[in-house]
Amino acid sequence: MAIFNQLHHLLEKSLRGFQAKSSDLSDTQEQELTQALHRLTGRLSEILSTNSDPYPTADLLSGCSQTVSLRAPIFLPEPPQIHFVTSCDGVVLMANEVVGDVLGMDLGEIGQVSIADYVAHEEWQILRSHLCALDVPPKLLNSMLTILPAGKPSQTIPCVVTPMLDQSQKVAAWHWGLTLEAQHSSSQPFFQLMQSLESHLYAGQSVDMCLTKICDGLVRVFGFPFVWVATVRKGSVPQLRAHAIAEAFDWESQGALWWSEVSQQAEFFQACEASEVSLLSSCRPPNGSMVWFPPGLQFHQIWSIPLSFQENCSSMLVVGSQGPQPVDPTILGWLKALGYEIERLMARGKQLDQWRLQSVVLGSVFDPICVTDTQGRLEWVNEAYAAMHGCSTQSMLGSPLSSFPHAELQVRRSLSDSSTQEFNFVKTEVLQTGTNGQSLVFEQVVTPLLNEQEDLTHFVVIWHDVTARKTQELMMKHQAYHDPLTDLPNRVMFEDRLEQALAQARRNGTLLALFFLDLDNFKTINDYHGHQTGDRVLRIVAERLTTCVRSTDTVARLCGDEFTVILQGLEHVQDIRQVALKILECLTPPIRLGKEKIPIQISIGISVYPKDSTYPHRLVEIADQAMYRAKECGGQCWRFATSEWNDE
Question: I need a surface site. Which of 300, 349, 371, 474 has the fewest CB within 10 A?
Answer without folding.
Answer: 474
